[in-house]
């Protein structure tokens, strides 16, 4: 089709919009019957090269997440349960949305200078870019919890504190299992 064809004046038949409605319905029906055919073959146990469209009944049914999907943040702990974070402020500096707020304090352990006294993330501002994870030299912050249903009726409800971030339980079952990933390794 010539690129200028779409600028042609509409005929009286075009102006009824009937051809466009027929075009649109034909696309819908083509997909409908294709999916019905593939799903029936699937129920009968006949393998096909193509897959029928699938509707996930979210939130009852979760669509498996690809392992690199960035989900809700969490702060990692050391073996003794203390935060792995050394309050270096790299994540706060890298964050383009300026939604990380850290106040450092001295750590009793002389080997490690600092730890966060306050570590807040305002999810209402977060753009889930993952820069905080990339910037962290200690692997202290990850976005691999598999939690995506994040909502609140208030702005304050979107503010996560250090304690909340340290106690988030990851839902790894929400991710697609990938045998090439090493157990316990961070996923960026
Ligand atoms: S994901 Fe991006 S926007 Fe969100 S806290 Fe991390 S750096 Fe900031
Ligand atoms: S989470 Fe990582 S980058 Fe952020 S302050 Fe702690 S150690 Fe530094």
Question: What does this 3D model show about the protein?
Answer:
By secondary structure, this protein is of the alpha+beta class. The protein folds into 2 domains: 10-54, no CATH class; 74-174, Alpha-Beta Plaits, CATH 3.30.70. Helices cover 24% and strands 12% of the residues. It contains 5 helices and 5 strands; from the N terminus they run ααβαββαββα. It has helices at residues 12-15, 18-43, 90-94, 131-135, 162-166, and strands at residues 74-75, 100-106, 114-122, 141-142, 159-160. The strands form 2 sheets. A 3-stranded antiparallel β-sheet has the order 2-3-5. The longest helix is centred in the N-terminal third of the chain and has 26 residues, at 18-43. It is elongated and about 80 Å long. 15% of the residues are buried. The mean pLDDT is 90.
